[in-house]
Amino acid sequence: MMEIGLNHYLVLSTILFCIGLIGVMRRKNLLLLFFATEILLNSVNIAFAAISHYYGDLTGQMFAFFVIAIAASEVAVGLGLLIVWHKRHGNIDLDSLATMKG
Amino acid sequence: MEKYLYIALFAPLVSSLFAALFTATPKKTFVGVIASTLIFIAFASSFILLTYILDDGAPVHVEMMTWMATGNLYIPFGFVVDQVSVTMMMVVTLVSTVVHIYSVGYMDHDKGFNRFFSYLSAFVFSMMILVMSDNFAGLFIGWEGVGLCSWLLIGFWYHKESATWAANEAFIMNRIADLGMLIGIFLVYWNTGSLQYDIAFPAMASLDTATLTWMGIFLFVGAMGKSAQFPLHTWLADAMEGPTPVSALIHAATMVTAGVYLVVRSNELYSLIPNVGLFIASLGAFVAIFAASMALVNRDMKRVIAYSTLSQLGYMFAAAGLGAYWVALFHLMAHAFFKALLFLGAGNVMHAMHDELDPFKMGGLKKPMKATYIMMTIASIALAGIFPLAGFFSKDLILEVAVIEHHYIIYSILLFTAGLTAFYSFRLTALIFEGDERYKLFGIDPHEAYKFMLIGMSPLLILAIIAGSFKMTYFEMVTQLLPATEYHMHNHFLYWVMTIGTQLFVAFAIVYAYKKYANSRVTVPDGTSKMENSFAYKLLINQYYIPFAYEKYLVKPYRELSTIFWKQIDQKVVDATVDGIAGVIYSTGEKTREMQSGNLSTMLKWMVAGTIAMLSLAVVFGLAVRHSDEILTILSGLGV
Amino acid sequence: MFEAIAFYLFAFLTTLMFFITVTTSQALYALTALAAGMIFISAFFFILGADFLGAIQIVVYSGAVMALYSFGMMFFDTTREVKEKNGNKYIVAGMSILAAILVVVIFAAPMLSENITAFYPLTEGVGNTQDVGMVLFTKYLVPFEVAAVMLLVAMIAGIVLAGKKMDLSLTLYSTAEIRDMKQDQEKKVLS
Questions:
Q1: What ipTM does the predicted assembly reach?
Q2: Single pTM value for the model
Q3: Do A99 and B598 touch (CB under 8 A)?
Q4: Which of A14, B225, C146, C152 is the most buried (most CB within 10 A)?
Q5: Which residues in chain C are contacts of A83 at CB distance < 8 A?
């Protein structure tokens, strides 16, 4: 077993970030798209916390803290908008969301 | 004295600008009157300057302002009134005044009356710049200015296709010659370091002959275009498309003499290269007989007079080429008077005959047009060189010069041409004024020109008669600047034989012409007579087929070449490239527009792609920063 | 050693859970997997000694956010299978892998240099919560207050967006009065 260093945590964070990216690019249902966004935010949190731990600096934890707060409010607003869209169109499929066609 | 210089120079400009205010309005007589008055003021100033110079005054030299002062090049707007330029100024302003007064009557019914005076005065202004300038650059400005104004005036009736064509021909031929002149001016500057006459000419004495020869040749090429020497002569005859006062002013007295003026002004240069001078003289003699031969059969009244001008220009160049510069200038002066008179008289005839130009369709006009008849006959006598009119003193002097300088071929050519000149001049007057009244067949009712026009022409008439008496005064004045060779034949007997022989020869030609054309047997030729179908006649009436050759071998290939350049190169290459660039940008925009499909998923994918791009850039730059020293050594090794 | 075992165990679990979240076609499975992933991430925080953060993670994420998502799912009736028309999966996978490599490279670079100093160093002797409190309420006070305002705004936005017609004030009128007013409205509509 290797000694767990900062690099391990960063690689883990990157893997999770990429999983989140896959989800963002792949998902066509808006709700599930939000799920993938949550994954992105969480992976970043892990990275922040890891750096904070290995450098003895509390800045990372502070940042992670605020990220959580922002994620929570984002979920609230996002779901509210989603509800309004659903009332208007009856479905939340991404491909039908093409009103901003250039 | 300087104020007279400026008045003489700028009065025509004021006249031109004043008339230009009225170009869009219908004819207003006062425009012509004021223009003529201003030109007369210029004439008066020139006359005052003449008297001043005759009183052994020093040349008036002013520098109005600096034009270019860059590095070693210094060109001012400078003007000089010395003996040569004051002679030219007198000629120009006098003939211009007469022509302006004449035009008030001639252009009476023309819609472009005001515009005509604007152009005419602009021409006078350019000519004044040309003769008064004290450096080659100012000369060139005047040169181009008279070219431009002659284009405007020849093509004055621009609705006529033939007039615009003639104007373009004149301008383009002048431009071709101007290239030579520019090269000559460049050579002058390059070798002497200055374009001022008083600096450049003394400096030329120390240059080698080859340079001087090239200089002289190129400057003469410019003179060839302006003075219509062979092969750039076709424009002069076609320039008769313009109104007759234009022909009188430009193509008799002023613009075509600019070439002679250039050679006379550059006499210090041409004295150093006598070989070029001989070439000029030979060319002049050739042109003299060449033009005279074409005038023998021509059926266009103004063309005959134009060929006569061309012939006399040949005489002037022959004199200048042989080193007799003051003689050339003297002939220029005398010729201006009687040739302008001839043209103006022809204008009267044209007006009376409702713009008919064929003298065979006239005849017997001496009854209704007595004054014009007298004037044209006297002018023709002067042109033929009969003693004691002006032409005798100048033309015979040129013949003397040829003999004294031992150029007997040139002498015989010029002598023969004198006979031809007399013949065709009196052929013209006989056909127009003597014989039966053939014009009655065509239902024309001629009347004399306005009285004021005739009065305006009278100074020219007087001068054509008495100008010979000025010879000695003129000689003393002008030889302070020009080489003062007196041409006296040592053998007095030979001199009298030559002179009287010339007079008899000329008189015989006049009598022959009268016998042939001033009788009742003259009819309008209709292309069936034996003479009309002879080879010589066809050759001469088609101007030796030179215009035809130019059109076929020069103009047509060039037009084809231009079309190729236009269609193949300009349209297919240049336009295609520019349009292609625009097309590429446009299609790029079209394609990238599809990126904005409105589909959130696609946009998210693009977002990730952009993030990857920026991350790669960050990695690359980070690596570059980290290893910057090694990168620098590699690049310097490659020689960047 | 325990740390290593814990790390690898939780790493594997977290990755698995999140992978299920992004690939499954059943919305309910995705939601459940996401919730599980959140819990496992909080385990990481505890391993790293960020106790406060771990607790916050559980409470906020696994509690509040997941509850919100559950309500959302209920509302949109996505318990059924989600039909998705997917594009080219190779582009998706390729780009993700590329991004992963790049990010790792970028992260690895500063680690090779050793000159990173701490801004807010850990205080010895106090527990993590106390430490966080000390920094949060002194150095990060303004962001803290702004975050509070932001949460308030988000809450109001959520209520406004999702709520039904709220033209009658629920606090100023009693329940009986509201019932009467509603009946009047219905009469007007029907008549």
A1: 0.89
A2: 0.69
A3: yes
A4: B225
A5: 72, 75, 161-162
Torsion, Cα B66 B69 B75 B81, to 10 degrees, reads 30
Facing residues of B135 across strands?
Answer: B196
Closest CA to B204 of B270, B131, B258: B270
Distance of CA B321 to the CA centre of its chain: 19
Q: Enter the tokens of residue A28.
A: 């066509």
* Sign of the alpha-carbon torsion through B371, B372, B377, B380: positive
Cβ burial of B475 (10 Å; 0-12, 13-18, 19+) is middle
Cα B422 to Cα B516: distance, rounded to the nearest angstrom = 14
Which residue is associated with the tokens 């009309």? B532
Q: Alpha-carbon torsion B631, B636, B638, B639, what sign?
A: positive
Burial of B23 (0-12, 13-18, 19+ CB in 10 A): middle
**Which residues have a Cβ under 8 Å from the Cβ of B310 and sit 6 or more positions away?**
B228, B233, B236, B237, B287, B291
d(C-alpha C62, C-alpha B333), whole Å = 116
pLDDT at A39: 94
Average pLDDT over residues C70-92: 71
Judge residue B47's burial from the number of C-beta atoms within 10 Å of its C-beta, 0-12 exposed, 13-18 middle, 19 or more buried: middle
> Which of A27, A33, A101 minimises the CB distance to B597?
A101
Q: Which of C139, C161, C165, C166 to mutate to test the interface with A (most CBs of A within 10 A)?
A: C161
What six digits make up the tokens of B180? 């030579």
Residue type, A79: L
SS3 B111: coil
Which neighbouring-strand residues pair with B581? Answer: none
pLDDT at B117: 92
Report the distance separating Cα B595 and Cα C124, nearest Å.
Answer: 54
β-sheet bridge partners, residue B61:
B80
Residues from chain A contacting residue B598 (CB–CB below 8 Å): 97-102
Backbone angles phi, psi at B354, to 5 degrees: 55, 50
Three-point CA angle B103, B106, B107, nearest 5°? 80
Which pLDDT tens digit goes with each residue over B532-563?
777 888 888 888 888 888 888 888 999 999 99
Buried (b) or exposed (e) across A32-57, using 16+ Cβ within 10 A?
Answer: bbbbbbbbbbbbbbbbbbbbbbbbeb
- The full length of chain B comes to 640
Cβ neighbours around C77 below 10 Å, total? 10
Cβ contact C117:A70 at 8 Å: no
Q: What is the DSSP letter of B302?
A: H
Closest CA to B417 of B551, B573, B291, B268: B291
For B447, residues 6+ apart whose C-beta sits below 8 A from its C-beta are: B352, B368, B369
What pLDDT was estimated at residue C85? Answer: 61
Stretch B345-350: mean pLDDT, rounded?
90
Torsion, CA B262, CA B267, CA B271, CA B275, rounded to 10: 10
